[in-house]
Specification:
The complex is a heterodimer of chains A (267) and B (190).
Chain A lengths: L16 H8 L5 H13 L1 H18 L10 H9 L17 H23 L6 H36 L8 H24 L3 H19 L2 H4 L3 H41 L1
Chain B lengths: L4 H9 L3 H23 L2 H18 L9 H19 L7 H13 L8 H19 L3 H11 L5 H8 L3 H23 L3
Helix pairs in contact in B: 1-2, 2-3, 2-4, 3-4, 5-6, 6-9, 7-8, 7-9, 8-9
The chains are: A mainly alpha (267), B mainly alpha (190).
Chain lengths: 267, 190
């Protein structure tokens, strides 16, 4: 502050604290900068003050970045995606009537059934092509088994959410399980997307968002805040859809087993 | 997942939500950190992250493909932070936020090769910075962060915050003074 300036023994005013700050940030005008540099070179007191300021600023530079939880990015996306223009949000499902949900469930059964049945009932080619097709069928069979198991595990978790079984003592375990499910879910969602099965892909997408939230912040489910009801309603609707698709997958597994025994008997 | 931001932006412009998701996953931490420094509140920072990506999504058609997406996003995030600060200028500083967040960050710091004394000093300094930060008003904090961490000139900050140049300077001076009071005892003989 200029009215607090002192004079040193060379009759030159000391640099004010504020001007030292401006100099540190390179905000002094050319003439002021020249004058300050000259003064600092010959005034120990101001030089020490400037050095102290530099040290303080260096300490401020060491300010650590705020800690962020694992899976932060996925949580951001889960919250952002429903709000993007032109994107139907997952919460929009909640606005659907039970009748509409039943209709959606039926559609899912039909589409999921057609998806898996279509892949299972293709006629077997002959020779080497037949062997390749057989390998492909094995891969699909394994995928079917894994998907069914994944849906079962997801159902178990959704039941826990819906029934309020998650509490403070099981938060860590819940987060770990949800994290594992997210990783698996992503693979199945991508597989469904690649094969063009929009309905299954959408269901898995919806499931993934809830799982991501569970993985990132299971306490939102365990604590009695506004999110709790929202999460539980969402989980309840999802549980219904997952059960429908899981059931369809199990049926397809059964049909596949029967078809394989039938073709084995005929060969 | 697209390899580069440019490729992801091109796909996202065509409505590929997975490409936009990739951009969100790549940049959300940096946006959060910037927003947190600017606002000093975890809740506000989350709001800024959301608003930043929403704005970016809406403005993607206007994004110059030769520009750097991260830089462009950073600018949006700064503006969103400023908008929030101007909209809530008198909101109480969330003291718990700073201490909790910085404390967690300090605890997660790798202490390999650091003597216990140095580590203790470092922890104490970080705590002091956190304390000093919580003592800043929102305008002081925003002005100081923009000057110190973002390298914005005082004139630019004045325009952004809608303050007169002198008011901006004094916000920064006050912030620096508080930092000096908090930290000088620890750094004087360092």
């Amino acid at each position: 502050m200029r009215n607090e300036r002192m004079r040193n023994d060379m009759s030159t005013p000391h640099i004010t604290e504020d001007d030292l700050v401006l100099r540190y940030y390179g905000e002094l005008e050319a003439a002021g900068e020249h004058e300050a540099a000259a003064h600092l070179s010959r005034c120990d007191e101001c030089h020490r003050a400037y050095t102290r300021l530099q040290r303080v600023m260096a300490a401020v530079d060491s300010l650590p970045a705020p800690a962020l939880p694992e899976g932060f990015e996925r949580t951001v996306w889960a919250r952002l995606e429903p709000a993007l223009p032109g994107r139907p949000g997952w919460l929009s499902w909640l606005a659907l009537s039970p009748g509409n949900l039943a209709w959606i469930g039926t559609i899912l059964v039909l589409v999921a059934g057609a998806f898996f049945a279509g892949r299972m009932t293709q006629p077997a080619p002959a020779g080497r092509a037949s062997q390749l097709a057989s390998a492909e069928q094995i891969r699909e069979g394994v995928l079917l088994v894994d998907l069914a198991e994944h849906l079962d595990r997801s159902q178990t978790m959704l039941v826990e959410v819906v029934s309020g079984e998650i509490d403070d003592g099981t938060l860590d375990v819940t987060a770990e399980r949800a994290e594992e499910l997210v990783a698996a879910n992503r693979l199945y969602r991508q597989a469904a997307g690649q094969t063009g099965d929009v309905a299954v892909s959408q269901l898995l997408d919806e499931l993934e968002r809830l799982l991501v939230e569970l993985a990132a912040a299971p306490e939102l489910v365990a604590t009695a805040d506004a999110n709790q009801a929202q999460q539980r309603i969402a989980a309840k609707d999802l549980l219904f859809k997952v059960r429908v698709v899981a059931s369809a997958v199990r049926e397809r597994q059964k049909a596949r087993t029967q078809a394989r025994s039938g073709s084995g008997q005929s060969s | 997942m697209p390899q580069s931001d440019a490729a992801a932006v091109a796909l996202a412009r065509d409505g590929d939500s997975e490409a936009f998701r990739a951009l969100v996953e790549r940049h959300s931490r940096a946006v959060y950190r910037l927003a947190y420094r600017m606002t000093g509140s975890a809740t506000d920072a989350e709001d800024v992250v959301q608003e930043t990506f929403l704005k970016a999504y809406r403005q993607l058609p206007r994004f110059e493909s030769r520009a750097n997406f991260g830089t462009w996003l950073h600018r949006i995030a700064v503006n969103c932070s400023i908008d929030l600060i101007r909209a809530r200028p008198h909101r109480e500083a969330s003291h718990g936020d700073d201490l909790e967040q910085f404390g967690a960050a300090v605890e997660s710091t790798d202490a390999t090769g650091t003597s216990p004394e140095r580590l203790m000093l470092s922890v104490e300094v970080q705590r002091r910075i956190g304390d000093a930060m919580t003592g800043l008003s929102r305008m002081e904090r925003a002005a100081f962060m923009l000057r110190h961490f973002e390298g914005r000139s005082i004139d630019e900050i004045s325009q952004s915050l809608g303050l007169k140049t002198n008011a901006t300077k004094h916000s920064i001076f006050r912030a620096v003074r508080k930092m000096r009071t908090a930290l000088e005892p620890f750094v004087a003989d360092a």
